[in-house]
Amino acid sequence: MKSGKNKKAAARKAAAAARAKSAAPAANVEKTAEVKAPVEAAPAEKSVPTSQAAAQPALKAAPKQEQIKAAPVQEKLKAAPTQEKLKAAPKQEKLAAAPVPEKLKAAPKKEALKAAPAEAPKAAAESDDAVFERRLARHYGELKWLYCELYHGDEQAFEYCVSMLRKAWTDRKPALRAQDAAREADPNWYRRQDLLGMMMYTNAFAGTLKGVEEKLPYIQECGVNYLHLMPLLQSPKGRSDGGYAVADFRTVQPELGTMADLEHLADACREKGMSLCLDFVMNHTSEDHEWAKKARAGEPGYRDRYFFYDTWDIPNEFEKTVPQVFPTTAPGSFTWLDDCQQVVMTNFYPYQWDLNYANPVVFNDMTENLLYLTNRGIDVIRLDAVPYIWKELGTTCRNLPQVHTLVRMMRMVCEIVCPSVLLLGEVVMEPAKVVPYFGTPEKPECHMLYNVTTMATTWNSLATADVSLLRHQMDTVCALPRDFLFLNYLRCHDDIGWGLDYPWLGARFGTEEVAHKKYLNDWFTGKWPGSDSRGELYNDDPRLGDARLCGTTASLCGVEAADFEQDPFKMERAISCDLMLHAWMLVQSGIPVLYSGDEIGQLNDYTYHDDPEKWDDSRYLHRGNFQWDLAELRHDSTTRQGKQFEGLRRLEEIRAKEQAFDAQADVWTFDTGSDHVLGVGRWYKGHKLIAFFNFSPEFVHVSSWEKGPYDELMYGGHRDDLNDVELYPYGFAWFLHTESI
């Protein structure tokens, strides 16, 4: 079989592809033609090479292609153009065999339907090929235009990309195709008010993927129908960055299970009406990835997948304008490789090599990896560190226009092959830089984005007992189009960075950024007088006076300190603080997401200090193992676990059924008469919710000057108006008024 491949590969005519690339890597790196035939899906637990084989007669440097049982591979080779790149040719030649996609002829017209439910029979009546061609036809023109603009008219690479999409659709199993059709017919399925997310580490929660599947009843009991598993693909021990240094995009970390286990879990989630989310680390790979190993060895074509340089000249120019991601733990954006005498771009850690998306081979192969995961049943793809993926000398290499082109193309790819899949963008930046990743209504990019700034501003409000900035931030979010969907959260796997609106704070209060950050960190580490928070700093840089914060929600709210001191008054106040913050998270528009363990008030885990692989990364403070023994107390209302679990479930149940929480509701803030208390209103179809959130440890009296009657949803009670409402320390209230229609 291998010799047959060599003959076929040698017989193919190489096409030229000398293309200008932004911030081109070292000039002496040789670019060689690469060929890739569509292959059958690999066995679930095995890795499938995704790189293209060299199109030269000598195939020693070419990645192996999986053996195909049936001969049709050769037929596909005729129709599947190659991603060839030869340095000698000045122009891009079109392959004679390059196919014109069967798009408009085969795509049946959409018939007008009397009722939405008829959409499913229509989709079922289409042949599989017709479904794909209809979706391809919808996006083909724009996809080709963007692709060829980005890759300098490389139609060969584009046609290869289209053939790869066809192969991915062919490999998509019937259950997923049925879900695609159902969600196409209900495009707002993910905007339902009963959606509730939870993020977790597989090993910390249940040990393995099979363990997570066994614990699905507990997850359902929490009201969760959106489950985000933190990085679980293969990464090297001791150099994994918590799983974000991926060595193989098609293999699960062995101690967690296999790809078959992941697919089985995805099937189980689907049966329970639960969507499964997985991280897709697209900016970089581990230095242990197959591509990186071959690049290090100097195999032709592979250094073009990264940013390699012979000297420090160009890297030093980059360093002048590119901010450092980890200035303390991993300073600089480049690493010297002594064994091959090269410099490689490493914006994150030295063992994470940045991918070069100016090379269409990288885009095609990474897109194929993404589709491989969606075909295993993943419903939501979290695009990690997406603002970083395009590099250009003389810029910050952040949020460049080409990034949006790439994300837009990935959105279209998903709508063609797997339209039930959502893209979640990780953009940890201020709102002005976050919002563009939604795209436009006509040309959307990400389906959802993290509401990072609101999260950080929430914790700022707790430390200052002042909601002015939070209200300002909320007003900004409320002014955005309702189609823009945020994921709202209090804590996640990562640290809290203090990326606040300092120009606004400076103009309003004369706040100085460095001094304010120090105050926040002192408060949340318990150093400030009167603080019961217990957190730790991450990436502390004394020179710049900057640091980020780690800790669980409960520990930052004071539960840990109260538990240690065995102080019942402090404990009640800390639990109230915890529930108030969750009530505030749930009143926002978007999808609320819990961090596993927060539902039972799990505390910091200090055992990482004694782990040689974790001791220098304080983020493991809030990445401890789930405490199942404490979860057993969740229905005992005399315990803090019971108070937090039952209180949170009550809030979630109200949100799921009350119309005022509809995604199309009007949302606004109002002046409560106190800087300690945030006031939020929601209205939908005659249902008006007025909510108060006290961010101070004192009793506060507030008003909204609303005429009633109003019912308090959480604790019960009835009021004729909302004047002179008393809130307990860190208390909240949800008042509902239903208009007569």
TrEMBL record:
Annotated CDD domains: AmyAc_Amylosucrase
**SUPFAM superfamilies for this protein:** (Trans)glycosidases
**What are the residue boundaries of the Glycosyl hydrolase family 13 catalytic domain, all occurrences included?**
199-634
Q: Please list where the region (Disordered) is annotated.
A: 1-125
MF terms (GO), sorted A to Z: amylosucrase activity
Recorded hits in InterPro entries, A to Z, give: Amylosucrase, GH, GH13_cat_dom, O16G_dom_2
Q: Where is the composition biased (Basic residues)?
A: 1-11
Bias kind Basic and acidic residues: ranges: 84-94, 102-113
The protein's superkingdom reads Bacteria
Supply the Gene3D superfamilies for this chain.
Answer: 1.10.1740.10, Glycosidases (3.20.20.80), Oligo-1,6-glucosidase, Domain 2 (3.90.400.10)
GO annotation terms (biological process)? carbohydrate metabolic process
Q: List all Low complexity biased stretches.
A: 12-65, 114-124
Q: Report the protein name in the record.
A: Alpha-amylase family protein
Q: Which organism is it from?
A: Subdoligranulum variabile
